[in-house]
Design brief:
The chain has 229 residues and is mainly beta. The chain has a single domain, classed as Distorted Sandwich (1,4-Beta-D-Glucan Cellobiohydrolase I, Chain A). Helix content is 0%, strand content 31%. It has a five-stranded mixed beta sheet with strand order 4-5-1-7-12, with no helix packed on it. A four-stranded antiparallel beta sheet has the order 8-9-10-11, with no helix packed on it. The chain starts with a strand and ends with a strand.
Length: 229
């Protein structure tokens, strides 16, 4: 994936909204474009469908004060109604983010969760889960493991793992993995790294907490590359 422009964070109900997106799949022979799509979350608010914009391998999510920002999921190409399952063992996952309009207080997020393939339902953006069992209008949320690859804005960024108990690591219909149950299913706080916490010299710039647009590297007014290993 080349660019995720997070202008926003990460009735529409009952409708499916998908958008074509190209990502690069790489192996020893090189990188090759692969056709995928993104699907809008099933509990999106009216108007969220107009805040998702895709051009080739670039995805832009807009933010509006009255409805917030949309959340989308990576799914397979047209004709294959299922979520894209990323097998990242011994592999890298890279993406660029552009958060120049997201000032302190915004949370632009790109993350992985234990959603299943959701065959036949991925286009509708159903069966979401995460380590907080977020509901977004649904009556009951579902717990599952979460890996936050990027949460940030122009001033700060964080990476966090949120583990869950084995039976709730992936999406499950088990009542014990639902938000109305016990609160010790997942590690809500997680194990995270936020460079800002470690003081001056550890944030976006080695020269202080925050050097937005001052020509120092990295400059959060510019596109920021992210690479997992």
């Amino acid at each position: 994936m080349k660019l995720v422009s997070l202008v926003g964070i990460f009735s529409t109900a009952g409708a499916s909204h998908t958008y074509d997106l190209t990502i690069d799949m790489c192996d020893s022979s090189g990188c090759h474009p692969s056709q995928k799509r993104v699907a809008l979350d099933a509990n999106a608010k009216p108007g969220h469908e107009n805040q998702v914009h895709v051009s080739g391998d670039s995805l832009t999510l807009e933010y509006a004060q009255w409805i917030g920002g949309p959340r989308v999921y990576l799914i397979e190409q047209d004709g294959v109604n299922e979520n894209t399952m990323l097998e990242l063992g011994s592999k890298e996952f890279s993406f660029d983010v552009e958060v120049s309009s997201m000032t302190c207080g915004f949370n632009a997020a790109a993350y992985l969760v234990g959603m299943d393939k959701n065959q036949g339902g991925a286009e509708a953006g159903t069966r979401y889960c995460d380590a907080q069992a977020v509901t977004d209008g649904a009556e009951v949320g579902t717990y599952c493991s979460e890996m936050d690859l990027f949460e940030g804005n122009t001033a700060a960024q964080q990476m966090t793992t949120h583990g869950c108990i084995d039976r709730c690591a992936s999406f499950s219909d088990d009542s014990g993995c639902k938000s109305q149950g016990t609160n010790d299913i997942c590690d809500h706080s997680g194990c995270g790294v936020n460079p800002f916490r470690y003081g001056p010299g550890s944030g976006y710039s080695d020269h202080g907490y925050n050097r937005i647009g001052m020509g120092l590297a990295p400059n959060s007014r510019l596109t920021l590359p992210n690479l997992t290993q």
